[in-house]
TrEMBL record:
GO cellular component, one term: mitochondrion
SUBUNIT field: Homodimer.
Catalysed transformations (reactions): L-aspartate + 2-oxoglutarate = oxaloacetate + L-glutamate
Additional remark text: In eukaryotes there are cytoplasmic, mitochondrial and chloroplastic isozymes.
The protein's name in its UniProt record: Aspartate aminotransferase
Organism: Rubroshorea leprosula
Transferase found in the keyword field: yes
Cofactor(s) the record lists: pyridoxal 5'-phosphate
Family listed: Belongs to the class-I pyridoxal-phosphate-dependent aminotransferase family.
């Protein structure tokens, strides 16, 4: 028997040690008898039959975004409406699988030559190449010059995390500036990856627009080399994007201070309906020959939410640097999840490489974007028709999946309680979850909240 276990039965051992040793003797057959009484009465600290060794753990709060869906699912009301998570719904309020995605899946199923082997650590090569082209543009000199390394990751979140871990390990600056406000998961992803998170001003609650002056001041006083997280388009949660001219100013400032851009592109095609227009900010930064990181997600624009398909691209100044960077990305990925899943990336690759399927996708994507934009107008008109106090023009000025309403926490809680409308407590509503049928319900709820809850 193990010396430590036999010594536990000596006269100097504690009662719990003796009980443990009795159990071990019983389980190993080294003792015909067992003092069952002493085991059943084992003290909580013994770890056996008492409280769980995890009994000290406190309950964590639900996620501020995904927790909204948890609460929504518990509500038995037939009129409940989930405008929390950014997930597209049809006019009938149902999740949408794009036709072109169904077609690609059918092709995958029909192809008997397909196997389920592991992908390489960096994922599906074809998917990576096509993803880089999608975000940087087919004619991008950076791609042509082999200065870009792209690795398939677990959707947008996984791409951000891998990029952040890589930076924490290999980049000289550990500080990342994120906009205030931003997607709630950003600070957690970056902090856990080992970066130190600071914010830059982004939104002006008074104008409900961009705080451009504040943004320039904050990035202007950031230390040289700091990393800056930029939403490529359709800023979440505010729906406020810089204009083209403002992007150009941001670019000049960042390049002059050697700030490293890390783009989060979760909504390419969802903002304007055009994949190219929504990639303009990224392409501006790549066109100047400088370096940057881009995290891409296919969750929204291809409706592949649960398939977890995304890519991280790192644009470098030279091909040999990009290739060395990729070798290190593999060392980040291998111990994290070894290699990415094959199905979703195969769907994307099929769609991106075939001209007809690609065109079909852009049409379906535009339909989704247009439906969201029309919901903005509908909601704005409905509030105007009700004479709801306040200027609601930001609903039609903002862009992307969300409207940042300006409703406060209490007003949101009121709308959930009285109208069964679920949204994040910061007053963000997912316009993609709204339909012609539910606009009046939302407008009634907003009207009541604004007039009855201060
Ligand atoms: N970046 C941004 C800006 C973003 O809004 C999301 C998702 C992601 C990345 C990550 O998406 P992924 O599914 O990992 O590709 N946002 C919506 C869903 C979520 O919170 O997970 C949301 O804000 O509702």
């Amino acid at each position: 028997m193990h010396p430590q276990l036999t010594s536990a039965s000596s006269s100097t051992s504690s009662p719990s040690d003796r009980r443990l040793s009795a159990l071990v003797r019983h389980l190993t057959g080294s003792s015909p008898e067992i003092d069952s009484q002493s085991i059943l009465s084992a003290s909580p600290t013994s770890g056996f039959h008492g409280d769980s060794v995890f009994s000290h753990i406190v309950r964590a709060p639900e996620d501020p975004i995904l927790g909204v869906t948890v609460a929504y699912n518990k509500d038995p009301s037939p009129v409940k409406l989930n405008l929390g998570v950014g997930a597209y719904r049809t006019e009938e309020g149902k999740p949408l699988v794009l036709n072109v995605v169904r077609k690609a899946e059918q092709m995958l199923v029909n192809d008997r030559s397909r196997v389920k082997e592991y992908l390489p650590i960096v994922g599906l090569a074809e998917f990576n190449k096509l993803s880089a082209k999608l975000i940087l543009g087919a004619e991008s000199p950076a791609i042509r010059e082999n200065r870009v390394t792209t690795v398939q990751c677990l959707s947008g979140t996984g791409s951000l995390r891998v990029g952040a871990e890589f930076l924490a390990k290999h980049y000289h600056q550990r500080t990342i500036y994120i906009p205030h406000p931003t997607w709630g998961n950003h600070p957690k992803v970056f902090t856990l990856a080992g970066l130190s998170v600071k914010t830059y001003r982004y939104y002006n609650p008074v104008t409900r627009g961009l705080n451009f002056q504040g943004l320039l001041e904050d990035l202007g006083s950031a230390p040289s080399g700091a990393i800056v997280l930029l939403h490529a388009c359709a800023h979440n949660p505010t729906g406020v994007d810089p204009t083209f001219q403002q992007w150009e100013q941001i670019r000049q400032l960042m390049r002059s201070k050697c700030l490293l851009p890390f783009f989060d592109s979760a909504y390419q095609g969802f903002a304007s309906g055009s994949l190219d227009a929504d990639a303009q900010s990224v392409r501006m930064f790549v066109a100047d020959g400088g370096e940057c990181l881009v995290a891409q997600s296919y969750a929204k624009n291809m409706g592949l939410y649960g398939e977890r398909v995304g890519a991280l691209s790192i644009v470098c100044r030279a091909a040999d640097v990009a290739s060395k960077v990729e070798s290190q990305l593999k060392l980040v990925i291998r111990p994290m999840y070894s290699n990415p899943p094959i199905h979703g990336a195969s769907i994307v690759a099929i769609i991106l490489k075939d001209r007809n399927m690609y065109n079909e996708w852009t049409i379906e994507l535009k339909e989704m974007a247009d439906r969201i934009i029309s919901m903005r107008q509908q909601l704005f008109d409905a509030l105007r028709a009700r004479g709801t106090p306040g200027d609601w023009s930001h609903i039609i000025k903002q862009i992307g999946m969300f409207t940042f309403t300006g409703l406060n926490k209490e007003q949101v809680a009121f709308m959930t309680k009285e109208y069964h409308i679920y949204m994040t407590s910061d007053g963000r509503i997912s316009m993609a979850g709204l339909s012609l049928k539910t606009v009046p319900q939302l407008a009634d709820a907003i009207h009541a909240a604004v007039t009855r809850v201060v």
